[in-house]
Specification:
It is a single chain. The protein is an alpha/beta fold. It folds into 2 domains: about 30 residues, no CATH class; about 160 residues, 3-Layer(aba) Sandwich (Rossmann fold). About 25% of the residues lie in helices and about 25% in strands. The chain has an 8-stranded mixed β-sheet, sandwiched between helices. A 3-stranded antiparallel β-sheet has the order 1-2-3, with no helix packed on it. Helix 1 packs across helix 7 and helix 2 crosses helix 3.
């Protein structure tokens, strides 16, 4: 039985051929990629629901070249330390196209790895990347997963909803967050903006959790291909917040050196 739950009544879902259903008769179709839509409501004034295809394609192209591999390996090591070689259940809350989720599943091998995201296109990319992932369209604010059913929650550049994470984690379960540090992508910003700004520090305090470790990943990234520079820009929220005039500054750029700075925060759920 899957760890996914019915977004209407909260009962566990059962997979039956091309559908998932609960014992109360609520049914959800599985796509041809084996993803399921468990969003309770998709009414929104926003034009975009999650990452669109432009952002997803840019991120897939950029990450496929290994530019963020130090982060990938470091996060995976954190999860493996929790697993100690035993089967565990991992949920990636805001998994996007599954770059981190897929690699972690491959390394763990004997564990159930789940991913949720509000972008249908992102989940299709994740499903194509790794058929062994359990994937659902869902929000981090209303995670359709049973109480105390996950050993690890991953929260990589996505909304942090501590109450939901605490609910679905086992007692003593782990939350692994990844946040951008102050100088992350500052070199990119200098190439675009007249007055580039540093990232605001994010609070490390979360209700219901105890911070057990903070690991910083810092290095300089040099890009010498305009496609790579464009992909880095388009995979960030900056692209959608930047004027066409400033966007044009990168169209012919052939060299970019920028800071890469991530913070990996490890928490344990307080009981």
């Amino acid at each position: 039985m899957t760890k996914f739950t019915c977004p209407v009544c909260g009962d566990r879902l059962i997979t039956d051929d091309r559908i998932m259903h609960c014992l109360n008769g609520h049914c959800y179709d599985l796509s041809k990629y084996k993803t399921v839509n468990l969003m309770r409501s998709q009414k929104s004034g926003k034009k975009r629901h999650g990452d669109d295809r432009l952002m997803l394609n840019a991120r897939c192209n950029f990450l496929s070249k290994g530019f963020y591999e130090p982060l990938l390996k470091a996060v995976t090591d954190k999860v493996c330390t929790v697993a100690h070689g035993e089967p565990i259940t991992v949920l990636d809350a805001g998994c996007g196209e599954g770059y981190y989720t897929s690699y972690i599943q491959e390394v763990l091998g004997n564990s159930d790895v789940y991913g949720i995201d509000i972008s249908k296109d992102a989940l299709i990319s994740a499903a194509k990347r790794n058929k062994n992932l359990h994937l659902a369209v869902a929000s981090c604010a209303e995670i359709p997963v049973a109480d105390r059913s996950c050993d690890v929650v991953l929260n990589i550049f996505s909304p942090t909803i501590s109450e939901e994470f605490a609910r679905i984690l086992t007692d003593g379960g782990y939350l692994i967050r990844v946040i951008p540090l102050e100088m992350h992508l500052f070199g990119l910003k200098k190439s675009i903006y007249d007055k580039p700004y540093k990232n605001k520090p994010e609070s490390m305090v979360l209700d219901g959790f105890k911070l057990t470790d903070k690991t910083d990943i810092k290095y300089s990234l040099t890009l010498t291909d305009n496609d790579d520079i464009q992909n880095l820009f388009k995979m960030t929220p900056y692209y959608y917040k930047t004027s066409r005039e400033d966007q044009a500054k990168l169209k012919t750029l052939r060299y970019l050196e920028t800071e890469i700075e991530f913070g990996i925060l490890s928490y344990v759920k307080e009981v």
